[in-house]
Amino acid sequence: MARTFLLTACAAALAAVAFAVTPALRRHAPPAASSSTGAGSSSDSGGRAPLLDAKTAAPAPAFAAGNWINSEPLTLDSLRGRVVVVDFWTFACFNCRNTLPALERLNATYSAKGLTVVGVHTPELERERVFENVRREVASLGVGYPVLTDNDYATWNAYGVEAWPTVFILDRAGRVRYKHVGEGAYDEQERAVKALLAEDYKGDADKTQTNGATNTNTSGGVKMNEKAAESHEKIVKSDEEWRKELTPEQFHVMREKGTERAFTGAYYANHETGEYLCAACGYELFASGAKFDSGTGWPSFYEPAAADHVETVRDTSYGMVRTEVRCARCGAHLGHVFPDGPRPTGLRYCINSVSLKFVKKDQ
């Protein structure tokens, strides 16, 4: 009788524990959870991005207060005009860690074309609340995009998140157009990003001033001009050929990915109006209208002259995670791009003067 009572009591205790743990476990999404846009998974969307209709999509909640890693504090107002991927994750969640490479690829491929990826780190365990732990894990995992800590779940609750990981994609007007819970659907998310970058946007960030004229022909928030229609045929030469055409310093920076010393280049303090061309092949890269004084000692621009005139590649050299910028025509190393620039893009293209050739407007 006593033994029966003991077993019954143990069973009841185990049931109580299971009841208490189950809700917490449900906050980790299964690896193959589907998107909640109503358009089905990537396998049944016919190659189209499953986006919520812009007319009925709700504005995204603002980011709550928290510590920022890899960036100065960002707001959705400052990101207006850009497509924004918001990823809710926590570093001890293996499902979350499995999604990071896909997010990094989106960041590297589309940041120059108008995309910003923001990781919202909402902790589950006590050690995930320690800022130094988060910062160490962000660096160790190679996360190069901005990360916001959300220890009090304020941003999590504002977005109505129920599980890690959850991805939202906002259009350039700041509306939630896509949501996915769990791992997977990476091709689907890339299609969503590309579709939103291609959508027409009539906000202030869609118009930029260049040399006193308004240019509204944009691609992913980056202005285009007549030279964007030039041939994009790749230029491929051997190192021996480049050595004959470039100075030793140019070759070191542009072909060996070196860096000129800060405050020594010809253009970091140049304020004249004109165009900045690739010093190796003459491709137009940046315009003076997008140049700003970053105080870093290198020429800085908040956007390229045309989205497809530069390429971005993930760079893990020297123990850092950065985004390298290259000439899209000849592959020359130009510098790096960082998510700490001014509006309207929030980007800082930090470029070596030796990689550029400046042509004044009247020339």
Question: Care to describe what's here?
Answer:
The chain has 363 residues and is α+β, with helices and mostly antiparallel strands. The protein is 23% helix and 22% strand. The chain is built from seven helices and 19 strands. It has helices at residues 2-25, 94-110, 131-140, 154-159, 186-198, 239-245, 248-254; strands at residues 68-69, 83-89, 115-121, 147-149, 166-170, 176-181, 208-210, 213-215, 218-219, 222-223, 274-278, 284-287, 291-292, 300-301, 310-315, 322-327, 333-338, 348-351, 356-360. It has a six-stranded mixed sheet, covered by helices on one side. A hairpin with a 5-residue loop joins strand 16 (322-327) and strand 17. Helix 2 packs parallel to helix 5 (186-198). The longest helix has 24 residues, at 2-25.
What is the structure about, briefly put?
This protein is of the alpha+beta class. It has helices at 2-25, 94-110, 131-140, 154-159, 186-198, 239-245, 248-254; strands spanning 68-69, 83-89, 115-121, 147-149, 166-170, 176-181, 208-210, 213-215, 218-219, 222-223, 274-278, 284-287, 291-292, 300-301, 310-315, 322-327, 333-338, 348-351, 356-360.
Order of helical and strand elements: HEEHEHEHEEHEEEEHHEEEEEEEEE
Give the distance, in angstroms, between the N- and C-terminal Cα atoms.
101 Å
Helix/strand-derived category reads: alpha+beta
- Tell how many strands the DSSP assignment holds: 19
Report helical residue fraction.
Answer: 10-25%
C-alpha-based Rg, rounded: 24 Å
Helical segment tally?
7
Largest sheet: spatial strand order: 1-4-3-2-5-6
Main pleated-sheet profile: 6 strands, mixed
Mean pLDDT: 81
Overall body shape? globular
Proportion of strand residues: 15-25%
The stretches of 5 or more residues where confidence is low (pLDDT under 50) are: 1-26, 38-46, 204-230
